[in-house]
From TrEMBL:
Protein name stated in the entry: Aldouronate transport system substrate-binding protein
InterPro entries in the cross-refs: Bact_solute-bd_prot1 (IPR050490)
Key words of the record: Signal
Signal peptide: 1-23
PANTHER family: ARABINOSE-BINDING PROTEIN-RELATED, DIACETYLCHITOBIOSE BINDING PROTEIN DASA
Amino acid sequence: MTSRFARAAAAGAALAVSASAFAACSSEPETTPDDVITVFAPQGEDADLDTNAFTKVIEEKFDVDLQFETTTWDGAAAGEKRQISLASGDYPDAYMLIPWVDQFSSDELVKLGGQGVILPLDDLIGEDTPNLTAAFEKEPGFKELATSPDGKIWGIPAWNDCYHCSYPSKLWMNSTWLEAVDLPQPTTPEELRTVLEAFKTQDPNGNGKADEIPLSAAGGSSLLSYLMNPFVYTAEMYSNAEGTTPATLGAVNGEVVLQPTRDEWRDAIAYVASLYEDGLIDEGAFTQNGEALNAKGNSAEGVILGSVAVMHPWFVTNDHEDGRYGQYDAVAPLTGPNGSDATYSGGGAGAAPGATFVITNRSSEAKQKKLMQILDFMVSYDGHLQGEFGVEGVNWSRPEAGDVALDEALEPNFKTLTPPEGEGTNNSWGPIAQFFSDAEFRNSQVTATDIYTPEGYERRLFEATKLYEGHESAELFPYWEVGVTGETATELSTIQTNVENFVVQASAEFVTGVRDIESDEDWAEFQQNLTDLGAERYVEIYQEAWDASK
């Protein structure tokens, strides 16, 4: 956990440096000729944006030369490099980012706009951007998400109506093991305990070794959310390493509540701690990364994972003769004292307030117009397919007779292809170009009907997510509807980072026994720690902002 907090501190330090640098920069930066547009963007390991096929499409279609300043897909590193880029004063014409890597927050947009570093887009949206205008009309929430707390559009966010992403805290359980121990899928916390005990003691993989891991995870956030929701509403904290969302907050009868201050939260952690103490939860569940979990899921020694708490079963590949790829099925939300809540990621179809696309004051009027045309093309149907997926006939194709859409109520409109190994990997911008993936676009993708094949993977996720739909909690706090700006936002940023990071750390400590959840003294110390970190002010700020937004 130490590295997570170190990354947060580094990102915060970079933000502080850049904020002071903005104030110091009063003169406009030098720019390039109108036919040369500079862009800051994340670049995947197998990509080269300079030679990318979609880059060539954009350059030819709009008669421009794109020059990139790149960063990685690692959130902390990307965030720090973006802040350094801005602070240097020699920043590019535009930033095109990825929301789940690093994007501009609403408060950043207002600050940078007020300082003149980025330009308002309101007057650039209209007749010259027909696709973006149509998208705003089709999904009013998209325009609302793009509108900053000060009422201006300083940037465009990514609208990604990802159905399976909306319910991130799922549990995937080995159905073959369930058959081996002669038990049904669990429906309550105690039934889950029974299943996990059977996985641990009854040799469900049949190799005569006590090598079974009943329940695992990566980072622990999905694990806690899934296991705690039957006791108290618990939001997913995955992608919240720097405390970017108020995941610990709930809403009870119109009042903002810090969930870890409640007795129900203590009961929930106590349940998880009891599973860990009995050896039913992987010791690495809170510390291992995805690579380590993958190693266990794809162990050459055989199938050793009984269940895993993650958004989708990426921890197993399809190249095993034992068929483990198709053995894991989603388990519906468990029913406990709090009912059967599931974690639902609201905030506009899986999107977050802020922006992934902004234009800086380095951009001339001609460049501004050209950049908006490029953005508008990526919002269009054909531009979206080429931008996100790649070359037609190589990375995707039009539907054929007999093809079935992911949502069978829709007409199929495209299908992705798997190019030969080593080909087609540098043909698209991927999520950088994903500005308007509404439900109709995503769910009309052609998907195989056999959910246990790689070609049917999206349908597998789609059908699994139906188990979670309708289990949204009444205590969900709609933080994405709440705008906090100015000095209060600066104050909030520090408090939120401190509180959210501390709860992540303390939760793992309670589960693993570093702190004793049964000890009134340890519980009181935990509450005092929260108070010392500004928990009361944290709740107060969000309560005032929420009340003002109603």
